[in-house]
Structure prediction request, 792 residues.
Amino acid sequence: MFSSIEDVIEQFAKFNYIASRRIATVIYLASALKKPVLVEGPAGVGKTDLGKVLADVVSNPLIRLQCYEGLDESKALYEWEYAKQLLYTQILKDKIGEVLHGARGLAQAVERIASEDEVFFSDKFILPRPLLRAIRSEQPCVLLIDEIDKADAEFEAFLLELLSDFQVTVPELGTLKAHHLPLVILTSNNAREMSDALKRRCLHLYIDFPDKEQELRIIRTKIPDVSDKLAEQVVNVIHALRKLDLKKIPGISESLDWVKALTLLNVKTLDETLVNETLDTIMKYEGDVRKAQEELKDYVEKSRARRGGGTAIPGGSSDKDFLN
Amino acid sequence: MEEKLVEFANLLRQNGLRVSVAEVLDAFAASDLTGLGERDIFRSALRSTMVKRANEVPIFDELFDLYFSGLGEVIKQAGQGVQDALSMSDEEFQQFLEQMKEMLEKHGKELSELAKALLNNNNGQLEKMLQQAARDARLGNIERTIEESYFARALARELGLDRLERELEEFRDQLDKSQHGARARMEEFLQRRLQALQDIIRRYVRIEREKRDLKTRESDRLQQLSEKSFLYLTPQEIEKMNEAIARLAQRLKNIISVRKRLAKKGRFDIKKTLRTNLVYGGVPFKLRFDRRKKEKPQVVILCDVSDSVRNVSRFMLQFVYSLQDLYSKVRSFIFVAEIGEITEHFRDNDIKDALDIALRGDLINVYAHSNFGYAFRTFVQDFIGAVNKKTTVIVLGDGRNNYNLPHDWCLREIKGRAKQLIWLNPESKNTWGFGDSEMERYGPHCDMVEECRNLNQLYHVIDRLVPR
Prediction:
């Protein structure tokens, strides 16, 4: 699938995903060893994106299972369509009458019905959910199990069989084995610690916030028409903000949103008022906004002092051309 | 290589990481794929297969550095050190080494392997010999700092350091006869190289010791911390404590979510059952039950924040507020002599800031002498409305009243209105009632009086506040 780690980086880059060497190494290992990957890290660093892009890169369909509290087998694996079964028995009443025709006694009737019962527990009446779809998929696929930490501990235990053997047992149909081993990506926001058993079966990848250089590259690839200066300023500000003790630290997705918003406003360089006005795009709590504003004041003053009189983040309306 | 990986896995285990055999096998497969060529990639391969917790990554990184390059790096640094001491550029040093090589071929035929490796700057060879000597000296058994000098001597002996010294001495004498120009420099080189080797030995021993020592530094630390009395915490430990509290709080949350799920179902719910089973034509395939409603407790905390118990109050508040969603309402008050409510600080700020604000002294005079009686009386006068049948009242204080009026009737009043009244005392039990301690007066009015001197005791108390 991938010939080397460099190959992974290159192919991901084609789909606008800047993979660090560490990420690339883990993806390479996962595809070579056929092991699931458990991705952890703060919100908004591209964990889910990794799965999506991986599907694009290997040009296989993506099957996504979003986890939530109370998710169970019938939502994740399969369910019998009772309603459909019921409907069919109603419609097929005559046929059933035919089958039962001439049967003597209850025992014989049950016998005859029993010999036909696989009709009702067949593929026609099974409602495959994401996990079963991944296993029965005719072509190789990428299975993304998103936010596994939101699901209950029981569900995690249920996943173990699937992750180690890629097979599931449906009592009426027997054991189903995957035609192709899917590439599995699990993401977790660390709302709770995953069990050791699950971790043991997975490769572990921790994605942290990228360094300035890398974030700059990400922004430039995702939003090509951003001006260099703006991108750099945004990255500087975001990195300064990440050092603060915030409730929700802005991730890469927030910096991308911000840059998008700013380019939409046709801004070429940042200034203080502009930052304050658009801060809502990256800060999700009122308290955070206040903290950020204080910090930014310092930051602006400092960078002004450093560059000798306001070239870093120039004030005044001459530098922005809002509505041209 | 596999041997080395197994040893590394053992080292990780010694340092408190859980590495299973299956994971070691994965590491084999992964390192086969990536090869050892690039250090960072090799490191990521091992990390993704063997380390599954983000908080263990720093330990892994440290051990990886110690294990996979510790010695090589030290030897390289030592070589650089010699070059710097002789104040030569890279080029000059290279030339000098060539000269040295010629010299060795002329005069040093009968020198030992060690001397040759040392003088030729053959780092690989030197590393191998050091490792062999380390095995012979059983360096792997080192555990404590005091053993360092012993093992350093043992290593030197196995390496044959005294013979080396003699050899270098003889070699220097030969130098005297042959060359004159570069003689001084050669002599200095010999001297420095020998010193460097001794230095390498010392640092090698230290690295080995550190490998085995990490665990006492990190993993046992939090454990010990939760047993340690609040009174004796150092500022660094208080920092660490925050982490420990966060972990315990998370654990408690997990336990509680399991308890909730295991909680008995309520009564049969006809309405819900009919609605669910409409899909099956009204045949009740799936039964539905009421969820018995769990009453979330309300908590009122009265914290003594006089100097002697401030730390405990801080942790208590921090703990309770990290579990805030488990309670329907938390109100907190602090007192020394005056009493004041700090609930809203917690609403607007995060826990740490709120505590700092609360303890800064704007609200009440935190430098007064403790007066429990006065504080309780004020509470009953001004805030008794906060207490109702669902409320658990927690008083945290040492009960040292400076011989003021105890006003213990206030506690009776509070108890009469509250669901329960709990007193937590950070002093050890056998000092209660002595001196100005009023515990014997206050105690009888409480449903529960507990000693609460360390994090574990605190944890148990808070555990009991949560409904089962």
About this structure: Chain B touches chain A at residues 18, 20, 22-23, 26, 29-30, 33-34, 40-41, 44-45, 47-49, 51-54, 57, 250, 253-254, 258, 261, 279-281, 285, 348-350, 352 (CB under 8 Å). The mean pLDDT of chain B is 78. DSSP finds 20 helices and eight strands in chain B.
